[in-house]
Amino acid sequence: MYQIQPILITLLDTMLITLECVILALQAVAAVRLALESPFESASQSNNRLSKRSPVVLGGGDRKCYRMKSNVNGINLNLRVESAFSDIIVPLPSSSNNIGLAIQSVSSGEPVTIKYKGDEYRGISSKAVVTIPGTRITDIKLPVIAVKKQSPDLIGISPNLDGVFGIGYSSLSKHHPPATAMDILYNGNTIPNNEVGLQLCPYDMISNSFINIGNTDITAKCGTNGRSVAWVDSPSDGYFSVNIKSILINGEQVDLPAEFQKRILKNGYALYSRVETCFTFMQFPERVVATLIDVIVGSNAIIFKKKKLSDKLNKEMVKRKLRKNRPIFKSNYNIDWSKLPTVSITMFSQNPVTDENRNSVVTIELGPKDYIQIIDSKHVRFTVKVGSSDHAILGISFMTRLLLTFDRAHKRIGFAPGCGCETATDGYPTISNGDQVLWSPSQLPEQPSTSSSSGRSGLRRSLLRLGSTLRDNIRRGSKRSKANYEKLED
């Protein structure tokens, strides 16, 4: 008996170590959620100041992107998370002007020309070894488009662009045949779902932004299980898009242009409204924006306080600021948020729309803090601007207090409570269907549910405590057995 005890302790230690390794492995499988870098900060590592993040004013730029840390062929890059693109874009290892020569340094490369954000790039369709720190995506060969750097001294493609991680549909791929990183990761069982969860937070909560590749490790949030509470179909023939049924200001429907979402594209599909992660604003037809601005100005909710202006001059000044999307210096204005209107976007949840399903809708109601957002410590800005009359763009300001799921497998977009929902006091945003409110901040329980990650940590702690107790008991039993054995020998 005395000799058996150490063997039992050794076996128990081995079992617990193995069990702990299994738990850690399961956690590693789920650990696909990682923080995103701010679009409000320096966009590139290319200046080699990797530890410095100099804040920059958004200015008039529409194309700010959240970025994630990645390693491609051994080079650390901050890749833009881009829903309007499906490929990974990275810099060529060589800065040669001769793309043909550069192909020799990249296996299986073939020349390709792409357009991205108004610029044209010459590059190579190829593969690269990609690692995304903190996830199971480690040293995996993925399709990339490697493009020529603007300067051989840069790490990235340009001072403001290290590269792109596209999450769009494969129909947008520039590879022949189409091949996207998301599809490769899913088909290779690296991620369990062909989905991406995105929480893109505003300036004052930017550290809570994250991307969830594969959409696992979902945690309970604000009275929900963390998953989408509403879904809308998003056709896979092009960009992530939604079919907007109506737009309302303070509950009053705005007449949309006759051509809104009526244009038929070359592929035979209708041009719906896009959801874009690299577009700063919500962009609507002129009529919608004009109506919203008129209601804001008419509410007298924004008053210039430095000088005594007539009501007419104050309204003209505010209207000018709003229409030009200029930064508003917070200390110069009194803003009564309670007077400002709401903006509601109602989308058909099923596509194509038929007589049977036309009442199946999802409505996102936004409050004033969604369309007038903090952009730095001193300024706010109106984040709605005039765009095309035939479609809308729902950019970053639409989603900064929502958690969106881009489900590439089932061709749909999901909506759930996002940034700041735990502490929201203004009652927005809300998510509804045609019958009821599915979620609003007013529905929050007093004690949110425990997250799944906390549950796993608790399980691990419990198992380790159990193992420690068992070992102690066995050791105590061993000492007692040894004492009794020695007594018998006396």
UniProtKB/TrEMBL annotation:
Name of this protein: Peptidase A1 domain-containing protein
Protease in keyword set: yes
GO molecular function: aspartic-type endopeptidase activity
PROSITE patterns: PEPTIDASE_A1
Annotated InterPro entries: Aspartic_peptidase_A1, Pepsin-like_dom, PEPTIDASE_A1, Peptidase_aspartic_dom_sf
Domain Peptidase A1: 66-416
Record keywords, A-Z: Aspartyl protease, Hydrolase, Membrane, Protease, Signal, Transmembrane, Transmembrane helix, Zymogen
Region (Disordered): 440-490
Top-rank taxon: Eukaryota
